[in-house]
Amino acid sequence: MNSCKIAVVGATGAVGQVFLDIADQRHFPIDEIRLCASERSVGKKIEFRSQEIEVELCTPAVLDEVDFAFISASGDVSREVAPLAANRGTVAIDDSSAFRMDADVPLVVPEVNAKDLNDHKGIVSIPNCSTTPLVMVLNPLMKKSSVNRVVVDTFQSVTGTGAAALAEMEHQSEAILNTRPVTSNEYPHQIAFNVMPHIEPFQKNGYTREEMKMLYETQKILHNSNILVSATCVRVPVAVSHSEAIHIEFEDMISPNEVREILENEPGIKIVDDPFSDVYPMPIDAAGMDDVLVGRIRKDISHPNGIAMWVVCDNLRKGAALNAIQIAEEMMKRDIVAEKNWRK
Ligand SMILES: NC(=O)c1ccc[n+]([C@@H]2O[C@H](COP(=O)([O-])OP(=O)(O)OC[C@H]3O[C@@H](n4cnc5c(N)ncnc54)[C@H](OP(=O)(O)O)[C@@H]3O)[C@@H](O)[C@H]2O)c1
User: Fold this and answer.
1) Same domain, 256 and 329
2) Is the pLDDT score of 342 beyond 80?
3) Could you tell me the distance, in angstroms and rounded to a whole number, from the CA of residue 86 to the centre of ligand 1?
């Protein structure tokens, strides 16, 4: 398949807007594009490749016309639209968590488990924007030694919540700097000039749903139910890019230099690691970049087989829109898009 027709569901949102930029930058071969959002945005015009395209509702008629529906709206919208698409022979590539753990739905980071796409049944999920950079570093290292345990603390930007959260952080910052009172709608507390160890609802075990996703999604993508992940997910007042302090406990000893050598040869990873010259990954550098940035690679002094590192990734690009486009590119290359290939 050399080119395709697509619908972008959530085209006015934080991920949707970045999706359109990336599709253009990568020359993603689109014959026809439909832009969908909620009723609030119907009729609004969005420019794509020098064309003004009118936003519309995502109807069955739209889904009938396209090869791919890229869904970046909400779990509820995905639960409605993705099966509707798949039943019409349209492949849904879904950014939400709605189908990630379904046995019939591949959860894919192309650099890690592209082969899982071969078994798709019309819906493909992309992982949580914190899981993606984690599995990208774990996967190549696990070829050297198996991993027993990972402790990861995340520092997640407000665009991880969506466009409205970024606007809220901007309004709060302005209010605080002008000594005006602050209001919070997107989060339970003020996010400007604050950090919040709370992303998604708390579970009975004391972890949040976001933290448990990092365990379950990692195990699914790596096809390894033995790997244990303990996460603490923290929202920070950063616009774009999630950072992660990752501590990996390997089965065998592995040196920081070996880790560096393995990761610098991996597609989609860039080593940024010269701490004595103040060089390490930072969100302001990762924002707008496709690569996952890795630095502060060092021996974890608390465990003989431990490695610690600091990883930063643009949550809207590799954490969402870029990963979705790469999945479509891979499916087109493998010629597994057409309905006859997956609906037997
Ligand atoms: N942000 C990230 O870093 C990230 C990373 C990975 C996955 N995701 C997932 O991607 C999805 C979108 O996230 P976001 O950050 O882009 O959110 P967002 O900025 O809040 O955008 C939401 C989008 O969904 C649209 N929408 C709302 N109701 C709709 C409906 N009934 N039908 C069609 N479209 C509808 C909105 O349209 P209107 O403008 O008309 O309201 C808007 O375009 C979420 O499922 C999120 O979990 C996000």
Assistant:
1) no
2) no
3) 20
Cα 143 to averaged position of ligand 1 atoms, centre (Å): 36
Does residue 209 sit within a domain? yes
Q: What is the pLDDT of residues 34-75, one digit of tens each?
A: 999 999 999 999 999 999 999 999 999 999 999 999 999 999
Mutate to test the pocket of ligand 1, among 12, 15, 81 (most ligand atoms within 8 A of CB): 15
- Give the distance (Å) from ligand 1 centre to CA of residue 216: 23
**What is the reported pLDDT for 344?**
58
List the Cα angle 235/240/246 in 5-degree steps: 60
* 3-class secondary-structure state, position 51: strand
Average pLDDT value for residue range 153-161: 98
Residue 279, token pair as written in the block: 């060089």
Kindly report the backbone phi and psi dihedral angles of residue 81, in degrees, each rounded to the nearest multiple of 5, phi listed first.
-80, -40
Give catalytic residue positions: 129, 242
Clarify whether residues 215 and 233 are in a common domain.
yes
Q: Tokens 């600091």 map to which residue? A: 310
Q: Which domain holds residue 147?
A: 131-157+195-315
φ/ψ of 11, rounded to 5, equals -65, -20
Same domain, 63 and 150: no
Share of the chain above pLDDT 90, in %: 98
What pLDDT does residue 97 have?
A: 97
Most ligand 1 atoms within 8 A of CB, residue of 9, 12, 214 to mutate? 12
